[in-house]
Design goal:
Distance between the termini of chain B: 40 Å
Structural class of chain A: mainly alpha
CATH architecture of chain B: Orthogonal Bundle
Structural class of chain B: mainly alpha
Helix content of chain A: over 70%
Strand content of chain A: under 5%
Largest sheet of chain B: none
Strand content of chain B: under 5%
Oligomer: heterodimer
Shape of chain B: elongated
Number of helices of chain B: 4
CATH class of one domain in chain A: Mainly Alpha
Low-confidence stretches of chain B: none
Mean pLDDT of chain B: 84
Order of helices and strands of chain B: HHHH
Helix content of chain B: over 70%
Largest sheet of chain A: none
Distance between the termini of chain A: 95 Å
């Protein structure tokens, strides 16, 4: 009986907010604290996923979906590929010195105090939300990106012409294209600097000799060639 | 300043049953932002620095979405409306582009120096 009353009294929006907020903040702190880069990547995935949950709770369902698809599904997979490509044993966990950690803790505490004070400085932001249902945002977002605003003006916004986002959309499109070309150019397979000498040495020498020559210094290679 | 901070957090916790306000989201954004800044400053692995950047951008996005939300808007507060969501979308796109280029640079550095320790990237030191 009392249990049923308690369940009815629980505000599930608030409950889910605290759950996702705790997950997002906890795993973000986990990213900072962890030394192992693979664990850091995992904690980052979980933190960004929980943030997508926060977006859904705020009524921004399209942004939440994009967060899951682009961030968690794309960017993080890219980062995990980077981790795997560079995960040689000495680099998996690079320790930070204790002095740096203490200094970072002090800086973090003061920055957090500053930001929290700013967050609570405006009285209107502290009032609980009225819980207005917004219209689904996907269609207004899409038309705003091609320059036509069909959404209602925001409450409290000054009246006037509201701009669409066609120009930023085009700029971002070209930006993404340039980034795609640039990333492919930067990450392309490089030609070796002296392919001929190594190939000649490898084809002449027997396997044991070859290993010594290719891993040895240039002078050893020259001496082997002279002999 | 810390005292005023604690004084502001206590009423927030006391009003937990009333529903979520914009300030709740701002606290989450502040924690994500601070974690990202510390991550960027402290990590010696270049990929850890990249993860810190992602956290910072995400903390900013939480704030944009909170200010844009009609659901969280309190009595008499202004709202960003759809503009906040559009900006959050652009931030996500630019973060993806930034991650791609930064990762390519990191892999190049790894190929040339055989390490991802940013402390070893001192070729330009005078």
């Amino acid at each position: 009986m009392t249990g049923g009353i308690m369940i009815a009294a629980v505000n599930f929006h608030t409950l889910l907010f605290y759950l996702f907020a705790l997950l997002a903040c906890g795993f973000a702190v986990g990213v900072v604290v962890a030394d192992n880069v693979v664990r850091m990547a995992l904690y980052l995935v979980l933190s960004l996923g929980a943030t997508a949950g926060l977006f859904f709770l705020a009524g921004a369902e399209f942004i939440g979906a994009m967060q899951l698809m682009i961030y968690v599904g794309g960017t993080l997979v890219l980062l995990v590929f980077g981790v795997m490509l560079t995960a040689q044993a000495p680099f998996v966990s690079i320790k930070t010195s204790a002095g740096d950690r203490v200094l970072a803790g002090i800086v973090a505490a003061s920055l957090l105090a500053l930001l929290l004070q700013a967050a609570f400085s405006v009285e209107a932001w502290r009032r609980p939300g009225l819980g207005e249902e917004g219209p689904p945002a996907a269609t207004p977002l899409g038309t705003a990106l091609v320059g036509v605003r069909v959404d209602e003006p925001a409450a409290g916004a000054p009246a006037g012409v509201r701009s669409g986002y066609l120009l930023p959309f085009e700029i971002v499109s070209v930006h993404l294209l340039v980034v795609l070309v640039g990333a492919a150019y930067l990450a392309r397979a490089k030609r070796r600097r002296t392919p001929r000498a190594i190939e000649v040495a490898a084809s002449v020498a027997p396997p044991s000799e070859m290993r010594r020559r290719t891993t040895g210094s240039a002078s050893a290679l020259a001496a082997g060639g002279a002999r | 300043m810390t005292g005023s901070c604690v004084g502001a957090v206590v009423p927030l916790l006391a009003s937990a049953g009333d529903g979520v306000s914009v300030a709740h989201y701002l606290v989450v954004g502040a924690i994500l932002f601070t974690a990202g800044i510390v991550c960027m400053a402290v990590k010696r692995n270049a990929l850890g620095v990249l993860m810190g950047i992602e956290l910072v951008l995400n903390g900013a996005n939480v704030n944009f979405v909170a200010f844009a939300s009609p659901y969280l808007r309190g009595q008499g507060a202004a709202s960003l409306g759809l503009d906040g969501q559009v900006i959050a979308l652009f931030v996500i796109l630019l973060a993806a582009a930034e991650a791609a280029v930064a990762l390519a640079i990191t892999l190049n550095f790894y190929n040339n120096h055989a390490t991802v320790d940013v402390d070893r990237a001192d070729d330009l030191k005078g």
